[in-house]
Amino acid sequence: MIPLLFSLLLAWPPGTGAQQDKLMPFVENLDADSNVILKWGFSEVQGTIMFQLTVKTTGWLGFGFSPNGGMAASDIVMGGVGPNGTYFMDYHATGNSFPLVDKKQSYTLLSLNEVDGQTTMTFLRSIQSCDQEDFHITDSPVKLIYAYGTSDDIRYHANRRGTKEVNLLKFMPRSRPPDINYLDFVVENVTVPAERTYYHCKVMKVPKLNGKNHIYRIEPVIEQLDLVHHMLLYGCPSSVNQTYEKKCYTEGSGEDCIRVVSAWGVGGGAFELPEIAGIPIGGQNNDEFYRLEIHYNNLAQEAGRRDNSGLRLYYTAQLRQHDVGIMTTGLMVAIGWGYAIPPNATAFHSYGLCNTSHFSDILPDPVPDLSVFSVALHTHLAGRKVQAGHIRNGEQIDFLGLDENFNFDMQQATNLGNIKTIKPGDEIVVECTYNTTNRKGITQLGLATTDEMCLAFVFYYPAIPVTSCCSHPDMNAYTAMMGKTVDQDIEEMLKTAVWDQSSTAVHEATMKRVPQIGFIIDVNKNYTMYEGNIRNMTTTLSVSCRSDPSLQAGPLEPFNYNTSPRGSSSWVVTSVAGSVLLMLWMTML
């Protein structure tokens, strides 16, 4: 079966670049004069990566992967448009000599054309190939090599060659606007209490900017690395008109500020947005006050520790094409609703639902297609796996995010290898897998690291006012299905239950089967509620390599092969923004 990605490209005529940008969102100049330009995108679900090499020449092109930047032991493709048509071949080099043709041709040519003095070659391959003559692409930087000629007679390239090291699966674009401006949102000399978990909030006013600007880069400013677990910055509505600083989730600590602007968490670094989109700041219709939230994880419960951490936001007056939005999806953190994860479970599953067909219930304007470029997955200490499934017309068509080896200390926003489109009416189902074999009591939803969450933060454009789209199981329906009376204390019932393998399995299946109560909330705290159901998602397992990329099932086909997502294919933003759900729920009470 030909994958959907492959068949779409075969159907496109040359020059449909705007459509291809969705599939190949990353661009890098391989030479200093911009004569050699590489575009690429990848699908971890399909296990394939697509390249488009454009060179200012009418001769042959060569591109490859090298262990050291030279010819020896490199994996190479060469092609061009000759007098008798196109040519394209997979090679490998054994030394500084003409490369040898591979016995197995592991690259699939998608298009090759020559227009206005430049040649463009688009091709597909597996991320990890079973062919020993091919280079295995990983989430580490790789040395890319290129060469080209002035004719279709493939011979020595002279100085028309080069190499550049690029991380293909963890690529982060770097903007260089002429106006390097930034704002620091930091706390000053905060005393961290001798408590294991403490949330500190500071509402501050942004300096007046000359009209609307776009944030394009976010950097952490961390003083106490062993204390600061995560930080979030929220935009505030016009109802917030004064600064203050105190413990979070107390009256007047900025509960009205619910628009997530940026975030950082342990293990993360800087985050740079794609070049066509930015987070709006300044101007008449944008926030004037912002709320910084810092989660301090004082494991030793030391007294007298002080901190001056925060976030640095780089902005530019050169506006980009789109405003970026960040939407929280998954399981609603609703304390007191009786959600419980049993102890001694090796793989307990929790679910959250977002049905976008209800966006129009609270939005006055028609809802556009949303282009998703990044997703951050989040659970706490018991989390082992998180996946965000993309559902259309009742069937799963893709994963928006997938981490089969979740690491609580390295929670990075997954850089999608191609832009994924959420259409009105699509659903997002977030599934989390927990291991509680080291726990003796139930685990509930909440802010502490020993509590749990199940969330996916979706980074997209163009921005719409929706800030949260989550759900919670209908616990009244759960009580009825379990043969209990509604007036019984559900939390007490779950705490005192006898949990074994059988009762845990029944509990998990019932929690998935009961209706979901969905909540959609916008930046002004308007909300709508609806009822929905959790749909089944594809099971994925790990595999070390793929054979022929042209024979893989596409996302609209049944997934009858194994996948091996690299857990950190990412721009290095960390979004441990789970506490936003609790805050949203509190503001609705």
From TrEMBL:
Keyword Disulfide bond annotated: yes
GO molecular function, one term: dopamine beta-monooxygenase activity
InterPro entries found in the cross-reference section: Cu2_ascorb_mOase-like_C, Cu2_ascorb_mOase_N, Cu2_ascorb_mOase_N_sf, Cu2_monoox_C, DBH-like, DOH_DOMON, DOMON_domain, PHM/PNGase_F_dom_sf
Subcellular location: Membrane
Taxonomic superkingdom: Eukaryota
Principal location: membrane
Signal sequence annotation: 1-18
Protein name: Monooxygenase, DBH-like 1, like
Species this protein is from: Salmo trutta
Name of the gene encoding the protein in the UniProt record: LOC115201454
